[in-house]
Specification:
heterodimer, A: mainly beta, five-stranded antiparallel sheet, B: 115 residues, alpha+beta, Outer Surface Protein A, domain 3, 4 helices, globular, disordered N terminus
């Protein structure tokens, strides 16, 4: 059986799309994560969520989201560095007023373009929170990249499961892990 | 640093990976053998996978490329065994990834992406 047989095994109308799906990829363990848009709650019917926090373990089937307010570190920081360009920056995050305030500090000469926080949602998916400003805040109105709530973002940051990636105007992408500041 | 993704697994009551998950699901009547992708699914490519929005359920699904391939192979004529063989061919694998395919088939049917 040849790869063409894979294409011929589906309806003609789907073959172009299938070419795009298969093209240039190698096998990866199949993954699927499902989210409910109702209140942006993540349904974890088959997801396992394990964080690095002692005593913080949710059994498979337990929801990611809860109405329990976030309890944990209120300040976070990330040191971002590019091995290639030697550009570095620092990100600060501080919880206050029911939102997460952030600020990126870039070295002289480097200009901010955009940034994103990348979160490993318990090993079943990643979520990205896109930030377009050098200084601002993240709240429930922010597009939380498929995460159910700001609580979740904070919990994952506290668990060391988040990293930040910053893009400079010069096209340098620098990244680093977000760590709680105790 | 790159974040890695890991699969969900089917476990039996003792928490031991169940390699006979397909048989069990079929036996329990939870999974249709010849699944067919439902019509009108809007599949959008994103940075590292695909997103499907189901307006009638108000749900969003993230699938990586292998899971989308499995979904696309659900045309009502391919059995789980055939789908695993086609995935094997598509990615030039030495063996058909039957267990992984079975898990995704169970999940996509459960989520109403196939019937």
């Amino acid at each position: 059986m040849a790869p063409e047989d894979v294409l011929s095994s589906v309806d003609e109308s789907r073959r172009e799309f299938l070419k795009k799906v298969i093209g240039g990829t190698v096998f990866a363990v199949p993954l699927m994560a499902s989210f409910s848009m109702d209140g942006l709650s993540l349904d974890a019917a088959e997801a396992t969520h394990i964080s690095n926090m002692p005593g913080d373990f949710q059994q498979p089937g337990a929801p990611f989201c809860s109405n329990v307010s976030y309890v944990g570190p209120k300040e976070f920081a990330a040191f971002l560095f590019s091995d290639e360009t030697r550009v570095h920056a620092r990100a600060k995050f501080k919880v206050g007023g029911g939102r997460l305030n952030y600020e990126f500090k870039l070295p002289g000469g480097a200009l901010f373009s955009s940034a994103k926080i990348i979160v490993d949602l318990g090993g079943v998916a990643t979520a990205r929170v896109f930030l377009q400003e050098q200084k601002g805040h993240i709240d429930e109105e922010t597009n939380l990249g498929g995460m159910c709530a700001l609580n979740t973002l904070l919990e994952e940051m506290a668990a060391g499961a988040a990293m930040v990636s910053l893009m400079t105007m010069g096209g340098d992408e620098i990244e680093g892990p977000i760590e709680p500041v105790y | 640093m790159r974040l890695t993704l890991s699969p969900t697994h089917i476990y039996d009551l003792a928490g031991v990976p169940n390699h006979f998950g397909l048989l069990q699901l079929l036996w329990n009547g939870k999974m249709t053998e010849y699944q067919k992708r439902i019509d009108g699914l809007e599949i959008n490519q994103v940075e590292d996978g695909f997103m499907i929005y189901q307006p009638e359920r108000d749900r969003v699904h993230y699938l990586n490329h292998t899971a989308v391939l499995i979904l696309e192979l659900c045309n009502g004529r391919n059995s789980p065994g055939e789908i695993a063989r086609l995935v094997q061919v598509a990615y030039a694998l030495t063996d058909p990834p039957q267990k992984e395919v079975n898990e995704v088939l169970a999940k996509i049917q459960d989520e109403g992406l196939t019937q």
